[in-house]
Specification:
Helix content is about 30%, strand content about 35%. The protein is an alpha/beta fold and about 210 residues long.
Length: about 210
């Protein structure tokens, strides 16, 4: 059976994410144990809160290097919400901080053009290209977002889907075995569960 683990560094709605994976038939381990994480076929990096604090906690537990090594070994990683932002090189949030550096680019404040921040609610995402992560999903597809900051990839070709809140923003990225969802798939009903099921399938294909 495909083994997927969630990186538990004390931030993020981890129980909701775990329940969503259970709902699609794949219970996942929620752990901060480096050995358990290394043994997994795929890793989920959740996150709710501030980028600098998240990176401080990951580094304090030595989990930043575990996630990097997992991705560099060609095994799938998906970052959810703040977890997606952590995949990038740096963020301007608060005092600024370096990220995991798995994807080139930075995290900046969303330009809502007069709309209220944070952006909270359902948003239609249009897909920019095919990917196993969005296979079978409609175009556009609706996902639930809660965020003030957004990723700005250096390479626009890694953008998988965009939403719009005052201005367009990157909602999904995919680069090889590294994936990110700015939304909360675990709160996004049918489309969110389908996306997580697709990630399980990606992990299974690599494991096989």
């Amino acid at each position: 059976m495909t083994a997927i683990a969630m990186v538990d560094y004390g931030m993020g709605n981890r129980r909701s994410v775990a329940k969503a994976f259970e709902h699609v038939g794949t219970p996942i381990a929620q752990t901060s144990d480096p050995d358990e994480l290394r043994a997994a076929d795929g890793l989920v990096v959740p996150g709710v809160g501030a980028f600098p604090e998240a990176m401080r906690r990951l580094r304090a537990l030595g989990l930043d290097d575990v996630v990097r090594a997992h991705a560099q070994a060609g095994k799938p990683v998906i970052g959810l919400c703040l977890g997606m932002q952590l995949l990038f090189e740096r963020s301007v949030e608060h005092e600024g901080a370096d990220g995991l550096g798995l994807l080139a680019g930075q995290v900046v404040r969303l330009d809502p053009r007069g709309l209220k921040l944070p952006h909270i609610g359902w948003n239609s995402v249009r897909w920019e290209r095919p990917s196993a992560l969005c296979d079978g999903l409609p175009d556009p597809a609706a996902f639930y977002h809660v965020h003030t900051f957004v990723a700005e990839p250096d390479d626009p070709s890694i953008v998988l889907g965009r939403g719009d809140y005052g201005s367009p923003f990157v909602s999904f990225v995919a680069s090889g075995n590294v994936f990110g969802a700015q939304c909360h798939p675990e709160k996004s009903s049918t489309h969110g569960l389908a996306l997580l099921r697709n990630f399980v399938g990606i992990c299974a294909s690599v494991h096989a």
